[in-house]
Design brief:
Structural class of chain A: alpha+beta
Distance between the termini of chain A: 69 Å
Shape of chain A: elongated
Number of strands of chain B: 19
Structural class of chain B: alpha+beta
Number of domains of chain B: 3
CATH superfamily of the largest domain in chain B: FAD/NAD(P)-binding domain
CATH topology of the largest domain in chain A: Fumarate Reductase Iron-sulfur Protein, Chain B, domain 2
CATH topology of the largest domain in chain B: FAD/NAD(P)-binding domain
Helix content of chain A: 25-40%
Number of strands of chain A: 7
Number of helices of chain A: 9
CATH class of the largest domain in chain B: Alpha Beta
Oligomer: heterodimer
Strand content of chain B: 5-15%
Radius of gyration of chain B: 25 Å
Radius of gyration of chain A: 21 Å
CATH class of the largest domain in chain A: Mainly Alpha
Strand order of the largest sheet of chain B: 5-2-1-9-17
CATH superfamily of the largest domain in chain A: Alpha-helical ferredoxin
Strand content of chain A: 5-15%
CATH architecture of the largest domain in chain A: Orthogonal Bundle
Number of helices of chain B: 18
Largest sheet of chain A: 5 strands, mixed
């Protein structure tokens, strides 16, 4: 359909709107079913600019579902109602003429709102900085085929590594827990021999940082998996828990101290 | 200006090894005193920042994204080339070098390309050690596939998300250096000028995008890894925020822009569907391993498809023209991108296009589905399987190989590509041109380096598939960390630079002047509407086919549009104290106008056809590109001194000592 009419209830916060935030309703005509959700918002913004009003701030970049920048809650679902789809890949053919659509930012204490639909997700970066890596320097690697990796392990690692770091899992969780994000990284690296070496240290450090950032606890609601645009499995959380518990018993922080490798 | 590429003497195969062994080094205690700014956190930037941090330099890394993990490298799908010869199919460093030089239509510097091929194998080793989950075989070793323009399988891949996985590898290394304190990360900061002190690059002016504040950052050297300028066309496969500003602001301070007209149009993208369209989506080149490109032979069939009276399945086999297989039997559907794009354009120009706009050709997997289905049935011991069973098995194999791409296609178009052939059309994808750099990746401004897509160095007039990831990571991990020492070894006694010096204050004032000018126009039209109009001029007159008449008209139209922009653009909000994406866009579009004009000037100057640059006046009788090696075997490096004077051409002659210049044939 080429001429849909929509009512958009959009969260506005900061700029000319209140610091606390409020919903503002906009009407939009001539929406084509071939538009992506973000292109529909582009059309709204073009209209607002023409009327010399402030456009809706939202974050976006690649518009092909891989950069993880877009972050909004559409009708109560992070990235909208379609499974396995980011907002930028959601097309208007999934809405009907006359629909009212509610659009809000991701809501979590650890993701403060910057403006309108834009939130700050630097907490995720700090969790990776705490240990979400393999500790090797450039040039130290051996031949890529020196260590065989079973196809099965590589597949499980990849499924976890597909995380785009968008934060939908946090936005979906009633506790605003970041366990799916953290467990995806822990699993990705622990499933590969290259990352296995420091798996325990990594799990402890990342969980510690996650707690410091103020993310909530996991209570097995599994809304994170349901809303994840990359369909990351909660099995990763089970894997993280195993890694964490065994690490907490076995791992001696003192190994870190002393003279190092000299 | 005489341009010196500083290519080391000696045999091609020994240049890099000998040069690396004889370069001046900076001792660890001195590295601690030296500051380096890296702008950009994509493959080249993140790899460089991490590697320089590991070496002991003080690094500041800037990105305009909210996180360094979002750079557009992340969207690369198909793979990364490396001369590992794991397939035992005759690959070698020399063959990768030769394919890249030939693929680039003999317009790249031999020594740079050879070095790229040489370090390619180390990139794969590095990535695997970081935990990049490349595709593997049942034996546990790495898998490969083929890409366009080559006859070996040297492409390593991670499903259709190779760029994402490589970028996350680099991001993790960068994150480790941030945690160790050797790299200081500045998210949501956009570089708006480079600062020169005594003719050398010693810092940048960056705008904090959250607060609008301008910041002065000083260092001993500046590395730009800021990507390509494909978004000058408005519609491209680039991410929405990709822009030329960091590179262009360096040009305005004296850096040279090399071969700006060399842009890559990728043949397999989802076609444009409407005026609201904001970007185009790539379907990976890897699909051409199994997909066959065709249009109907008869115009009336094409017309019936366009009007919805027929579809692809109604066209019998004998009425289909598999035009790549027909024109290029040796490479077939796997010809290089420039060749495949032009062939699709020709078919659509002849009235054979299959979308309502007339601008699309088919990419058909039915033959591959049937072939894989029969093979799978054989493996399962099914004799004389039903056709339906064969198709089902074949679809499963295709799903395993390309499932995420097929799903993406269906999400965007609403059509099922397992049944109905994909519709595709060429779109702007990559820019081979960029800042002129010497063998050290240093621009003509001492201390200013450029890595990855933002330099011009390795791809000549056309880039081969799966080579962008290779070049970004080669520059960032294995070239720049060495070559920057050449410059910095002279600065070990140079104290830190003062960001409050007159040069920094002046540059900041200049940036503020530009912002005030744009905010002050208060006209009627949005930034986006100007960008769309600029893009339309560029696509129509400086796109897949160019001629002198169109280019001359385009230059005038761009100048007129630029004037209108500065008289009638409306940038809402305020410049400081608020997050203002419209102002960010306005600053970028202002620079696209100047870059776009320079591209047109370069395209006019290059009176030959080569790679992605096709001048209609210069073609063979069969419609293939006609190079002019006698007059144009040079790098065109342009100086730009403002609106009132013509850009000035500087030439770096290309010397080919190891390959013979041949007419590029894929027949």
């Amino acid at each position: 359909m080429e001429n849909m009419h929509l009512k958009l209830k959009i969260w506005r916060q900061g700029g000319k709107f209140s610091k606390k935030g409020e919903f503002v309703t906009y009407e939009l005509d001539n929406v084509s079913e071939h538009m992506s959700f973000l292109e529909m918002l582009d059309v709204l913004n073009e209209k607002l600019i023409t009327q010399r009003e402030e456009p809706v701030a939202f974050e976006h970049d690649c518009r092909e579902g891989i950069c993880g920048t877009c972050s909004m809650v559409i009708n109560g679902h992070p990235h909208g109602p379609n499974a396995g789809t980011t907002t930028c890949q959601l097309h208007m053919r999934f809405f009907r003429d006359g629909d009212t659509i509610t659009v809000e930012p991701f809501r979590a204490k650890s993701f403060p709102v910057v403006k309108d639909l834009v939130v700050e997700r630097a907490a995720f970066d700090r969790i990776i900085q705490a240990g979400g890596f393999v500790s090797i320097n450039t040039g130290q690697a051996q031949d890529a085929n020196a260590i065989p990796v079973s196809k099965e392990s590589a597949t499980v690692a990849f499924d976890a590594a597909a995380c785009i770091g968008c934060g939908a899992c946090v936005a979906a969780c009633p506790n605003a827990s970041a366990m799916l994000f953290v467990s995806a990284k822990v699993s990705h690296l622990a499933m590969l021999p290259q990352g296995k070496v420091e798996a325990k240290r990594r799990a402890l450090a990342m969980v510690k940082q996650m707690d410091l950032e103020g993310f909530g606890n996991c209570s097995n609601v599994t809304a994170c998996e349901a809303e994840c645009p990359k369909e990351i499995s909660v099995e990763n959380i089970a894997r993280l828990n195993r890694e964490y518990i065994s690490a907490a018993f076995v791992y001696d922080e003192k190994e870190e101290k002393g003279g190092g490798a000299g | 200006m005489a341009l010196n590429g500083k290519v080391p003497a000696g045999n091609l195969t020994e240049k890099w090894t000998k040069y690396r062994a004889s370069m001046p080094l900076v001792a660890p205690n001195n590295k601690r005193r030296l500051d380096i700014i890296v702008v950009g956190s994509g493959l080249a930037g993140a790899a460089a920042a991490a590697s320089l941090g590991e070496l002991g330099y003080n690094v500041k890394c800037f990105t305009f994204h909210d996180s360094p993990r979002r750079a557009h490298s992340i969207a690369a799908q198909g793979g990364i080339n490396a001369a590992k010869n794991y397939r035992n199919d005759g690959d070698s460093t020399y063959r990768l070098f030769y394919d890249t030089i030939k693929g680039g239509d003999y317009r790249a510097r031999e020594a740079n390309v050879y070095r790229l091929a040489e370090v390619s194998a180390s990139i794969i080793d590095q990535a695997v050690a970081q935990g990049v989950p490349f595709a593997r075989e049942y034996g546990g070793l790495l898998d490969n596939r083929s890409f366009g323009g080559v006859q070996v399988s040297r492409t390593f891949y991670a499903r259709g998300q190779t760029g994402q996985q490589l970028l996350i590898g680099a991001y993790q290394s960068l994150s480790r250096q941030i945690s160790l304190g050797s790299v200081e990360m500045y998210n949501r900061h956009e570089m708006l000028d480079v600062v020169l002190v005594d003719g050398k690059a010693r810092g940048i002016i960056a705008r904090n995008l959250l607060t609008g504040e301008l910041e002065r950052h000083a260092a001993h050297a500046v590395v730009l890894a800021t990507g390509g300028y494909g978004n000058v066309f408005y519609l491209s496969t680039n991410a929405m925020m990709c822009n030329v500003t960091a590179a262009w602001r360096s040009v305005r301070r004296g850096a040279l822009m090399a071969n700006p007209c060399f842009t890559q149009i990728h043949p397999t993208c989802i076609p444009v569907s409407g005026d609201y369209q904001s970007k185009l989506t790539l379907m990976s080149e890897s699909l051409r391993n199994d997909g066959r490109v065709w249009v109907p032979k008869k115009q009336e069939d094409a017309a019936a498809i366009r009007s919805g009276h027929k579809n692809a399945l109604d066209i019998p086999e004998e009425d289909r023209d598999y035009f790549l297989e027909r024109r290029y039997p040796a490479f077939g559907n796997l010809v290089p991108r420039d060749v495949a794009s032009r062939a699709a354009k020709i078919a659509c120009d002849e009235g054979l296009g299959v979308a309502p706009t007339g601008l699309a050709v088919y990419l058909d997997f039915s033959a591959a589905i049937e072939r894989y289905g029969r093979s799978k049935a054989g493996v399962m011991g099914l004799h004389n399987p039903e056709h339906k069973k064969v198709i089902e098995l074949g679809q499963n194999v295709v799903e395993e190989k390309y499932g995420n791409l097929f799903a993406m296609y269906e999400k965007i178009t609403g059509e099922n590509p397992y049944v109905m052939p994909m519709k595709i059309y060429p779109a702007v994808h990559y820019t081979m041109g960029g800042l002129w750099v010497d063998y050290n990746l240093e621009t003509n401004i001492p201390g200013l380096f450029a890595a990855g897509e933002c330099n011009f160095s390795d791809h000549g007039a056309n880039r081969l598939g799966a080579s962008a990831l290779m070049q970004g990571l080669a520059d960032g991990y294995f070239v720049l960390p060495y070559t920057i020492g050449n410059f910095l070894s002279n600065d070990i006694r140079t104290p830190k630079f003062d960001p409050n010096s007159a040069e920094f204050l002046q540059a900041e004032a200049d940036v503020k002047g530009r912002i005030d000018q744009l905010m002050g126009v208060q006209g009627k039209q949005s930034v986006e509407s100007f960008h769309r109009r600029l893009g339309k001029i560029m696509w129509e007159k400086c796109g897949m086919a160019r001629n002198a008449e169109g280019l001359t008209a385009a230059r005038r139209q761009i100048q007129e549009l630029r004037e209108e922009f500065y008289k009638d653009v409306f940038v809402p909000g305020s410049a400081t104290g608020d997050y203002n994406p419209e102002l960010e866009k306005a600053l970028r579009v202002a620079d696209f106008f100047e870059m776009g004009e320079l591209m047109v000037v370069d395209a006019l100057n290059r009176e030959e056809s080569c790679g992605g640059h096709f001048r209609e006046e210069h073609q063979t009788e069969e419609g293939e590109a006609l190079r002019d090696d006698a007059n144009f075997a040079y790098v065109a490096a342009w100086a730009y001194n403002g609106w009132d004077t013509d850009p000035v051409l500087n030439k770096e002659e290309l010397v080919f000592e190891n390959v013979e210049l041949k007419s590029r044939s894929y027949k």
